[in-house]
């Protein structure tokens, strides 16, 4: 069972997202919060597998809440709920180590897939969010693509394979099954990839994979 903490200051939005999550028998919303400070407190109490946080909330916004939860290690993963036009917030959340970014207005199946992916140790970026984040992180797309390709060029062939699947949002276990590797070996490859790419987390590595064009190969 994937235990989720859901935080959003809009009651109707929480109800809608909660209803979508309830359609998956393997996902349970164990706590709800209407502001970031309450989310941090509830994370300490329930230690959920996934903290699903709205970016804009009163008292403490989702980014600050995510930073506190990651710092205290009170949730297995943190995923942010976003809307179009929140590019600056998304980039800040990325810097704080968020594992996923999901559009509030996206396909319900995408929400479920994203929660499952981050709960399994993967990274998940809604495709429209990925495009906007990449565009926001660098005005000069060609320059960023060239830089990403240079960074990826330093990886071994196997590390590139792992990075490609990581960019697709797969967990270590899923990558292992796809490549015929034990999970411990995949974990070692991921650690090496993050070090070589100078990436803080899997989401940053996934963005490099997107920018380098690995997912189109």
Summarize the structure in words.
The protein starts with a strand and ends in a 5-residue tail after the last helix. Helices cover 57% and strands 14% of the residues. It folds into 2 domains: 2-135, Rossmann fold, CATH 3.40.50.2300; 140-216, Arc Repressor Mutant, subunit A, CATH 1.10.10.10. The model has no long low-confidence stretch (mean pLDDT 86). The protein has helices spanning 11-22, 36-46, 62-72, 87-95, 108-119, 127-137, 141-153, 157-167, 172-179, 183-197, 202-212; strands at 2-7, 27-33, 50-54, 77-82, 100-103, 124-125. It contains 11 helices and 6 strands. Helix 8 crosses helix 11 (202-212). Helix 1 links the parallel strand 1 and strand 2. With 217 residues, it is an alpha/beta fold. It has a 6-stranded parallel β-sheet, with helices on both faces.
Low-pLDDT windows of residues: none
Q: What is the rounded Rg?
A: 17 Å
> In total, how many domains does the architecture comprise?
2
Rounded mean pLDDT is: 86
The assigned structural class equals: alpha/beta
Helix content: 55-70%
Strand content: 5-15%
CATH architecture name of the largest domain: 3-Layer(aba) Sandwich
Which CATH class of the largest domain applies here? Alpha Beta
Largest sheet: 6 strands, parallel
Number of helices: 11
Query: What is the CATH superfamily classification of the largest domain?
Result: Response regulator
Side-by-side strand order of the widest sheet:
2-1-3-4-5-6
